[in-house]
Amino acid sequence: MEDTLIQIRRDLHRIPELGFQEEKTQAYLLDYIGELPQEYLEIKTWRTGIVVRVTGSVGSKTIAYRTDIDGLPITEATGLLYQSEHNGRMHACGHDLHMTIALGALTACAKDQPAQNVVFIFQPAEEGPGGALPLIQSGILKEWWPDEIFALHIAPELPVGTVSSRTGLLFANTSELFLDFKGKGGHAAYPHLTKDMVVAASTFVTNMQGIVARNLDPLQSAVITIGKMESGFVQNTIAETARLEGTIRTMDPEAIALVKQHIEQQARGLEISHNCQIEIDYGSNYYQVYNDGTKVEAFREVIAKTSLTYKEAPPAMTGEDFGYMLKEIPGFMFWLGVDSPYGLHHSKLQPDEKALGHGVEAVLAYINHA
Ligand SMILES: CC(=O)N[C@@H](CCC[C@H](N)C(=O)O)C(=O)O
């Protein structure tokens, strides 16, 4: 099985696609699922996603397991033989491993009927614009509504053979952040005749650092990161426009509204001081990943009977739209150690593939404990 898992992971790794564009990925998954024994399976598609229900022999409850399926707009720099064949796209967040583990667990359930019903959710667009919320709202899960749900995320900093989780908040509330600055361009030698958006956008980035330091309660945690800054065309021209792209992260859902309020205030102030217009767009917003204590405890007990080691996880400022599923259905998310020297969203992320077998073991152990 280990060789098969590695082959699947490499196949999927070659074809990363962005949110709601996962056509090749969906076709690959459907082909694979179609080859499995079909006796206990029912398959539905939703946009580029797939939902598969396995009928259990007892079937007194339904456990859902969710994997995300999209890649990131990152150019891979691993130099691996099986590196991404899609220019500027990479599975740099481990969704290729997440999908492979889901297929491994589904294969076992299709061959050896589990006691309880299991719903496998292959969800698009986790990195953006968010697939979990519209998937729930679409009603596709209505007839197969789970009693509980769980998911995993690879953890580059944890050793292979380790899983990690915690009761309560695991991942933060997030909001994307896009700012478009509009001023007046002109000759570099005549700044007084222009409204320079390189200066306005840089000032915004610098001032913004004060929001977490000075506007939030020090006992609350938040992060505002600008990951992309774009402006200008040539060295001797003043830029008429600028664009900032970033993300906001907070540990509680209310704090995110406060951060947005301060961003808006600073933008209005800059509009006056730089005589420009600033448009703000918050893109997609994810609700916190909040783990159910009873389920985490059950998972910890299940893991103690496997070859894996359980570690208590600290809360993290990462985001996950799986939080929307946990808002509706009790459950949990856990980290799976993959021991990569490069972290999530890095162009050289290289998870240890031995983690695939451990992932399948953990998922099946939890499915079969019920
Ligand atoms: C686990 C992980 O890395 N998740 C992403 C989720 C993206 C949320 C959204 N696009 C945003 O940037 O706010 C993360 O960046 O944490």
Automatic annotation (TrEMBL):
It catalyses: N-acetyl-(2S,6S)-2,6-diaminopimelate + H2O = (2S,6S)-2,6-diaminopimelate + acetate. Pathway: Amino-acid biosynthesis; L-lysine biosynthesis via DAP pathway; LL-2,6-diaminopimelate from (S)-tetrahydrodipicolinate (acetylase route): step 3/3. Pfam families: M20_dimer (PF07687), Peptidase_M20 (PF01546). Keywords: Amino-acid biosynthesis, Diaminopimelate biosynthesis, Hydrolase, Lysine biosynthesis. Its EC number is 3.5.1.47. InterPro entries: AcetylDAP_deacetylase, Amidohydrolase, Bact_exopeptidase_dim_dom, Peptidase_M20, Peptidase_M20_dimer. PANTHER family: N-ACETYLDIAMINOPIMELATE DEACETYLASE, PEPTIDASE M20 FAMILY MEMBER. Catalyzes the conversion of N-acetyl-diaminopimelate to diaminopimelate and acetate. Belongs to the peptidase M20A family. N-acetyldiaminopimelate deacetylase subfamily. This is N-acetyldiaminopimelate deacetylase.
